[in-house]
Design goal:
Layout: H1 14-32, E1 56-58, E2 73-75, E3 115-123, E4 132-137, E5 140-145, E6 155-158, E7 174-176, E8 185-187, E9 189-190, E10 197-199, E11 207-213, E12 216-220, E13 226-230, E14 234-237, H2 253-258, E15 286-287
Parallel strand pairs: 13-15
Antiparallel strand pairs: 1-2, 3-4, 3-6, 4-5, 7-14, 8-11, 8-14, 9-10, 11-12, 12-13
Length: 305
């Protein structure tokens, strides 16, 4: 930090001018040294915040039974649920909303038959970008992720059988990935058989089933990364609903506050070369069949005198 002695005014004491110059230079250095950009690696020893953890937390029923009624939520406001410290400063506020318990597990009957469910309602969900559909079968009803062209009155089918000849893919139906023809667009993909859909659940997204080797299937995600799945993993045919979600302009800063997002910017942000375009090799295939190391268990101990 340097002081410009040529800017000293003769009528003002020299000490006060130096103090003002120091304050002005420190203020400029503090503002203009901010560097923003996505994808930047964190420092060694710093654990990045987990996504989708500090926004809100739904309050599930005490008995643990599934329900389709709207559930209350607890807003985290970017704070850690245990320590209460602010982890993400761009989360906070937002309009009041209720949580709909979406069932991501599309599992067919064990006897090889087909489960048919009637679409009773398709509606907007304030807690996610995709539309959700209420389906009913017998005396049971549930919320699921709606496909692109799902409408009230449709019949969605779920089967867990892998035939010798690939089945005819119908949008909204759920099948094991090994039962579908090559090139099918799918969403709500399971990583392990019976584990429920984990990825490709956002509005307008879809993965593509590209090839099969023995009992292993390769799926290309919207990010162009590939998944290696077991042929028994359940997927839903088609693209996720609300495909125009990303093309709708925000319109005003107030709408961002209604959505629960605090301001991200300051006065001015520099960009460095790390945020620019780079030619990187393609990422490796995510092998969901590989054995994973068990995470160590941690216990919180409380000592009382």
């Amino acid at each position: 930090m340097r002081l410009d002695l040529m800017s000293v005014k003769p009528d003002v004491p020299l000490v006060s001018q130096c103090v003002n110059n120091v304050r002005y230079a420190w203020r400029n250095e503090r503002v203009f040294r901010k560097i923003r950009g996505g994808g930047r690696p964190v420092r060694e020893g710093v654990v990045p915040p987990e996504p989708n953890k500090y926004n809100f937390r739904p309050v599930f029923p005490e008995d643990g039974q599934y329900t389709t009624r709207p559930l209350p939520i607890i807003k985290m406001g970017g704070r850690h649920p245990e320590t209460g410290r602010v982890v993400v400063r761009t989360i906070g506020g937002g309009h009041k909303k209720k949580f709909r318990w979406v069932d991501f597990k599309r599992e067919g009957p064990k006897d090889g038959s087909v489960l048919e469910e009637l679409v009773v309602q398709v509606r907007y969900d304030p807690c996610r970008s995709a539309r959700i559909a209420m389906v009913a079968s017998g005396d049971h009803k549930r919320w699921i992720i709606a496909a692109e062209n799902t409408k009230v009155g449709d019949i969605v089918r779920t089967s867990s059988v892998i035939p010798r000849i690939p089945v005819r893919a119908v949008e909204g139906d759920a099948h094991p990935i090994g039962a579908l023809p090559i090139g099918t667009l799918v969403h709500n993909i399971e990583f392990t058989p019976g584990g429920g859909g984990v990825c490709v659940r956002a509005a307008g997204t879809a993965a593509q089933y590209i090839r099969k080797v023995d009992n292993k299937c390769f799926v290309q995600l919207p990010s162009k990364r590939q998944l290696l799945l077991d042929e028994k993993c359940m997927v839903v045919v088609g693209r996720v609903s609300n495909i125009n979600h990303g093309s709708i302009p925000i319109g005003s800063p107030n709408r961002l506050r209604w959505l629960g997002k605090r301001p991200r910017s300051g006065m001015w942000h520099r960009k460095d070369g790390y945020c620019g375009r780079k030619i990187r090799p393609p990422k490796s295939i995510i092998d969901t069949l590989a054995e994973r190391e068990k995470e160590p268990e941690f216990y919180n101990l409380t000592f009382k005198n």
